[in-house]
Amino acid sequence: MNATRKLWTWLAIICVASFAALGWVGTEIYLKAPPIPQKVVSASGDLIFTADQIQQGQQAWLSAGGQQMGTVWGHGSYLAPDWSADWLHREALALREIWAQRDYGMPFAQLNVGQQGQVNSLLKVEMRHNAYSSANATLTVSDDRAAAIRQVASHYSGLFGDEKTLDTLRSQYAMATDSLPDPGDRQALTAFFFWSSWAATTDRPGETDLSYTSNWPHEPLVGNTPTATIGIWSIASVILMIAAIAGMIFFHGRHKEEDDPVPPKSDPLFDLKPTPSMKATKKYFFVVIGLILAQVGMGILTAHYAVEGQQFLRYSAGRDSALHGEPHHSYPVCGSVDRHRLAGNRPVYRPRHLRA
Fold first, then answer.
1. Cα 278 → chain centroid
2. pLDDT one-digit tens code per residue, 125-135
3. Of 63, 256, 310, 316, whose CB is crowded by the most CB atoms within 10 A?
């Protein structure tokens, strides 16, 4: 019994120490969280984004599907890309092209190795430099970067709008056309995506090559790669966990319990006779099984339509029917199939085995 009490004591000590460490780390994360600038301006003084737009953009993203459609900093669904990573990559490419055209008069891909190396070096310095001023809560970016930001913002405005040239990309992302009908929401959305990308790549105050998100997501163009500290602590945590398990096994092997329970000679469940209260729980288990099956079914439907995309859902008062754009749906169907006229005057497509 004394040995058992000691084990419970050690368990309590470990739990208290673990949660104390988690609380301390959580406090540090809160205090060192990336700031939300009151305004983002160019070096020329042009206003690009405001804090209200950044926060409104987060709400706009949530209203368009949020974590069910893409991720931010890796949190959410992978049906669409990580928007912070996607913005970061697109902004880096756009800024490279601006410099290549300005300094050499040709696309970046046509530059020689030395010229590309110089542009890439400037890109890393530009993107990682923390130009946020806590004195006036203002983030200032260069005029070239402001131009790159506007280019990427235009792309996202079209992607979450109804830009026809992005229909294929929306289909690949399983996004509906005009996910955000309000132009103000789309503009705010770009502010939120920019901020999440900026926080993921700019250096923390007093640090070098270490962003607010510890260089996540991965983007070699701007130096967002795992640091040596991350690798060391990851390895150390695994070693400590294995050592702790080995220590518990060693301790248990050296200290046998005096009051260990004696196992029964036969399985007591074989002779169990259900009581009326046990029998009464059958309805509960049937209901639980039904709910689980319903949940699985809804998950299958959700996954199917998420992968298929939402491009085939349109409301229009057309003549014939239309519905699907998948390449394996190769046979048009008569208008009677589309009773609600979802597709206007476009033909509906169905699989071969469902052909009328």
1. 45
2. 999 999 999 99
3. 310
Q: Which helix H or strand E contains 114, and what residues bound it?
A: helix 113-128
- CB-CB contact of 75 with 68 (8 Å): no
Q: What is the β-pairing status of strands 331-333 and 138-141?
A: unpaired
In 3D space, the residue among 67, 87, 85, 64 whose CA is nearest the CA of residue 77 turns out to be 67
Q: What is the DSSP string of 176-203?
A: -TTSS--HHHHHHHHHHHHHHHHHHHSB
- Written as one letter, the residue type at 275 is T
Which element (helix H / strand E) includes 47? strand 47-50
Burial profile 140-161: b = 16 or more Cβ within 10 angstroms, e = fewer: bbeebbbebbebbbebbbbbbb
Peptide bond just before 217 cis, omega within 30 deg: yes
Contact by Cβ (8 Å): 70, 186? no
Nearest CA to 49 out of 131, 140, 124, 127 is that of 140
* Contact partners, residue 332, CB within 8 Å, separation at least 6: 347, 348, 349
Cβ contacts of residue 305 below 8 Å, gap of 6+? none
Tens digits of per-residue pLDDT, 28-69? 888 889 999 999 999 999 999 999 999 999 999 999 988 888
3-state secondary structure at position 271: helix
Q: Which residue has the tokens 């945590």?
A: 237
Could you tell me which residues come within 8 angstroms of residue 139 by beta carbon, excluding any fewer than 6 positions away?
37, 39, 40, 41, 131, 132, 133, 198
Q: Are 301 and 325 in contact (CB under 8 A)?
A: no
Which pair of tokens denotes residue 218? 């991965």
| Bridge partner list, 34 | none
Share the mean pLDDT of the chain. 85
Q: Taking a C-beta distance cutoff of 8 angstroms, is the pair 211, 201 a contact?
A: yes
Bridging pattern class, strands 71-72 and 138-141: unpaired
Residues in the chain: 356
* Mean pLDDT in residue range 245-272: 80
Query: What six digits make up the tokens of 278?
Result: 């046990």
Calculate ∠ Cα 312-317-318, nearest 5°.
75
User: Which residues contact residue 253 at a Cβ distance below 8 angstroms, ignoring those fewer than 6 apart?
Assistant: none
Question: Model confidence over 140-163: pLDDT tens digits?
Answer: 999 999 999 999 999 999 999 999
